[in-house]
Amino acid sequence: MSALQINSYAAGRWVPPGSGARPIASAITGEVIAEAGGVPETAAMLSYARDVGGPALRAMTFHDRARMLKALAMYLSERKDPLYDLSFNTGATQKDHLIDIDGGIGASFVFASKGRREMPDAHVYLDGPVEQLSRNSTFLGRHIAVPKQGVAVHINAFNFPVWGMLEKLAPTLLAGMPAIVKPASNSCYVTELCVRMIIESGVLPGGALQLICGSTGDLLDRLDGQDVVSFTGSADTALMLKSTPAILSGAVPFIAEQDSLNAAILGPDAAPGTPEFDLFIKEATAEITTKAGQKCTAMRRLIVPDAAPVIEALSARLKATRIGDPRDRETRMGALISSAQRADVLEKSAIIGTEAERVFEGDHPDGAGAFLAPILFHCTDPDTATEIHRTEAFGPVSTIMEYRDPAHAAELANRGEGSLVASLFTHDTDTARQIVLQSASHHGRIYINNRDSADEATGHGSPLPHMVHGGPGRAGGGEEQGGIRGVMHYMQRTAIQGSPDMLTAVGGPWVPGSREFKTGEHPFRRPFDALEIGETIHTDAREVTLKDIEHFARFTGDTFYGHMDEEAAAANPFFPGRVAHGYLLLSFAAGLFVDPDPGPVLANTGLDSLRFLQPVSPGDSIKVRLTVKQKTKRNDEYGEVRWHVTLTNQDDAVCAEYELLTMNAY
Ligand code: NAP
Q1: 55-60, long-range: CB within 8 Å, 24+ apart, which pairs?
Q2: Is 216 in the pocket of ligand 1 (CB under 6 A)?
């Protein structure tokens, strides 16, 4: 078979490997299967991204981009088989593909859905509430976020050629930034196929995605403060790249996800025979063998109360793990990415071996492939040892160590000096709380599993698009994913200060104090498209009588003393005497502002941010101001209208304030 020529995708065209091309070997056979390399025209790539891709993406709203992501994820979902077929060459098994290929597509679906649900159908993202900056509210503040106007450069590690790209690409595109992706050379042929599919789909605008299979050349030297680098790989490479003068002088955000000596703690209550002990052994086996241990989140240090039963149970499971050609259905663990990686893992294992005893080593398969059987170490003096806490053997290697008490377990976990994830297998809530409080500062994620969560827990090693992935210290100090938090890396947060009208004009939703107006028609009679932000009605007033309060109390059964017992109510610090029920006021408010006949308002779907600010006594009268605050399209038939509702009394004091949600037909 002739070697695949792996192209870059630069400035809208596929560019074959140039003179600097290097061979890429199959992890299973050692044969050269592909060639990639060369230096692309970085200036052209940057201007294609900045001048073509960025403007096209920024012209779309968050919802447009979320829909685009969903279409992309659906397109890829229908084309997984060719990706699986090619990816076997990286040494990955079918189960590994589920993490890489299905996991990457899944992350895109999650960002597509979060973009629709948690971001506005607009160009500006509001970050937090309006801040009161002046006594009379004529000068207010608010934080907004808009897409950066540069390019996101994604430099990825070899172990997840598809997930590694998509988990960063989804939040980047949702934010409205174009990306240049540089996968690791060893597995770039899988990423290239995925990028081909994405480009062929026609779902993304031109310039939104480019690919470098080979060297980045002078790309990083050309970046500025509107660009972002998101790096995944080793700490050494991260340090070298973030020291690029242009990155330092231009204050280019550099998100680093690097190596991590992740810990798994077996709780003191989780003795052999408990469900937690079995779970620990099951998950540790999976962590050591999945992707042949080449997982940034893999359990590298197993911190247990008693080493002997763990060594026995884990060794038995690892011994039974079948290692071999990942295409074989019986295979449970495939190969490392390359023979160089195997040599590196063996070298790092030798360093760990200077402080720990090798207590298990599987049978290493013969052949030219980069196979390596699992290796377990036991360190009897983890307090004085240093290498076991800092040497990452990026393969199927783990070290077992004992702790004295939960505080000691947390201390050992923290010796990794910053990790992506630590896990805890316990059924004891006190132990969990103590360890989390003592070690959360050192870990990006803490995964707690036990008999109650086991059936649905997603696994120690699985970063989820909903949750933050990253960690402090040696893990790189970066964060990715975590829902909309992950999108914010590709946006600029800006504090906007000005009058209420200015904040409404910039942000979108109506800000109290800004212009309100009437049309000749009740807003409930106006279809979704016709309604305008700021459109307001002021209702007539209605008196609230003691009879109303008693009727409501008997009708609903809410005879709370504050409404029914004058003396007891007056003794309460909040009430002058008997007062109207808050829910009675909401009901009266609806009675004042609704237009009853069938029309564009289809349903009341909720109410947000309700505050009762001042009690209403019998004899008081109330009136309502109802203003269109925000409109969000939901589908082809209807959209959501968010109304600002203010209920005031005869003295114009605000008694209640809230946001009402309705679905309105177009
Ligand atoms: P690596 O050797 O550091 O390479 C990472 C990426 O940097 C690759 O794409 C590599 O491209 C690129 N690179 C290297 N030198 C470069 C340069 N001078 N300019 C531009 N790009 C350059 O790491 P790896 O071997 O691929 O991955 C293994 C490491 O990644 C492990 O240490 C693991 O812990 C870590 N990792 C961390 C995470 C996480 O989320 N924290 C996830 C996965 C892996 P080439 O391949 O072309 O050199």
Answers
A1: 56/205, 56/206, 56/207, 56/208, 57/147, 57/173, 57/176, 57/177, 57/178, 57/205, 57/208, 58/123, 58/147, 58/149, 58/176, 60/176
A2: yes
Judged on CB neighbours under 10 Å (0-12, 13-18, 19+), 301 is buried
Q: Which residue has the tokens 């295979």?
A: 331
Mutate to test the pocket of ligand 1, among 190, 216, 295, 296 (most ligand atoms within 8 A of CB): 296
Find out whether 542 and 621 touch, Cβ atoms under 8 Å.
yes
Gap from CA of 468 to ligand 1 centroid (Å): 20
Question: pLDDT per residue over 417-467, tens digit each?
Answer: 999 999 999 999 999 999 999 999 999 999 999 999 999 999 999 999 999
Domain 516-665 sits in CATH at 3.10.129.10
Question: Which residues fall within 8 angstroms of residue 505, CB to CB, at 6 or more apart?
Answer: none
Whether 379 is catalytic is no
The pLDDT tens digits of the residues spanning 337-372 come to 999 999 999 999 999 999 999 999 998 888 789 999
- Ligand 1 within 6 A of CB of 230: no
Judged against a pLDDT cut of 90, whether residue 188 lies above it is answered with: yes
Mean pLDDT value across the chain: 96
Summarised one tens digit per residue, pLDDT across range 478-491 is 999 999 999 999 99
DSSP letters of 227-258? -EEEEES-HHHHHHHHT-HHHHHTT--EEEE-
DSSP conformational letter for 523: G
263-467: which CATH topology?
A: Aldehyde Dehydrogenase; Chain A, domain 2 (3.40.309)
Beta bridge partners of 656: 612, 647
Burial class (CB in 10 A: 0-12, 13-18, 19+), 602: middle
- Residue 1: pLDDT band with limits 50, 70, 90: low
Q: What is the pLDDT of residue 364?
A: 82
Q: Where are the domains of the chain?
A: 38-258+485-491, 263-467, 516-665
For the chain, how big is the Rg over CA atoms in Å?
30
Task: Name the residue of 39, 154, 155, 291 whose CB sits within 8 Å of the most ligand 1 atoms, as the mutation to test its pocket.
Answer: 155
Active site residue 659: no
Domains 263-467 and 516-665 share a fold: no
Q: How far is the CA of 254 from the centre of ligand 1 (A)?
A: 14
Nearest to 135 by CA among 659, 657, 513: 513
Query: pTM higher than 0.85, yes or no?
Result: yes
> pLDDT per residue over 492-528, tens digit each?
999 999 999 999 999 999 999 999 999 989 999 999 9
- Return the closest-CA partner of residue 59 out of 205, 188, 191, 183: 205
Does domain 38-258+485-491 sit in CATH 3.40.605.10? yes
| Marked catalytic residue, from 35, 167, 192, 257 | 257
Q: Among residues 188, 194, 296, 655, which one is catalytic?
A: 296
pLDDT at 381 over 70: yes
